[in-house]
């Protein structure tokens, strides 16, 4: 299933724009674009919401017919337990996280111990934990931890754009993780020369205009055949003013949805 995530609304949620969208606003906009899935990922206000606010948001998603996934950072057992509680409120069956969190950087052995402690409760609830590929950790190390834990409810959130900062190949990352992928983050990316030809900027690009060989990902991972959701997000730099930034963010979302739908 194709979905949108909070990173597709990064600037529209931001206090840098005159009228930031609420979470429910983003749900409504997602449904208006004919999308049935939303991933609330790294959305700081989520953990500050009261129980009634959480129930209201979950109810709004259900009323709109949206499937919800959640996303956070870190694998401290207490933190993952809290997100399992949130997953139950939203009827979410997937939580995306990262091995390292804001206040935790476990060794690989510690990570394995923490995950073994937590995974039984995820398994019992029918919730999958998908750990993202990113530059702070070698993809081979991430895979080694996942393979050692050995749970059907633990796998990879595949984002090949992230690993470039570690000088890993996005294409190789896709091939390495294909068998264990449980979730896909969809965004294009490109390098651009800095003014004066003094280096490059690595940033987002409108889908189909950058370096991401998404056809290779589809062929290798086969997310649609395997029921793996594809979540749209962006790396969009600020575009000088709020109006231009919001317009560009929405244009990138439309372009990405069109690109994904054209490959179905």
TrEMBL record:
Task: Supply the name of the protein.
Answer: Sugar phosphate isomerase
Swiss-Prot/TrEMBL keywords = Carbohydrate metabolism, Isomerase
Q: Report any Pfam family annotated for this entry.
A: AP_endonuc_2
* All copies of domain Xylose isomerase-like TIM barrel, residue ranges: 29-255
GO MF, any single term: isomerase activity
- InterPro entries according to UniProt: IolE/XylAMocC-like, Xyl_isomerase-like_sf, Xyl_isomerase-like_TIM-brl
Q: Does the keyword Isomerase apply?
A: yes
Q: Does the keyword Isomerase apply?
A: yes
- Signal peptide range in chain numbering: none
